[in-house]
Design goal:
Layout lengths: L21 E8 L5 H13 L10 E7 L13 E7 L17 E9 L4
Antiparallel strand pairs: 1-3, 1-4, 2-3
């Protein structure tokens, strides 16, 4: 049986997502990151800071950027974190007081883009 795909009857591809109102992929980078530094960064994301500057988000996934995919304390330099929440996140160095950790937003899937 042949399967056909009719472009005219399919949805239009556009910015957005089916993951919730807003999902962002963050990069936490710190040379030779320790487990305590990773834990502190995750807690900071979930707790939030100043309203409208660093709002709390829900961490929904963590992926280690190593060949093995395993976090090794004192060795791993970069971790990707998937977060959900519609609040503001401000990227930067020494993220939320975690010395040496830089947070950057590498993808932003917004269900309702402006």
């Amino acid at each position: 049986m042949a399967v056909t795909y009719d472009v005219a009857t399919r949805a239009v591809a556009k910015a957005g997502n089916g993951l919730g109102p807003r999902t962002r992929i963050l990069l936490l980078a710190n040379t030779d990151m320790t487990q305590a530094e990773l834990d502190a960064s995750i807690l900071a994301l979930e707790a939030g800071g100043t309203k409208g500057v660093d709002d709390p988000v829900t961490v929904v996934g963590i992926s280690v950027l190593t060949e093995s995919g395993v976090f090794t304390t004192g060795t791993t330099d970069a971790v990707q974190v998937a977060v959900q929440g519609t609040g503001v996140l401000t990227a930067g160095d020494d993220y939320r007081g975690v010395t040496g950790t830089t947070m950057s937003v590498i993808a932003d899937f917004d269900q309702n883009p402006a």
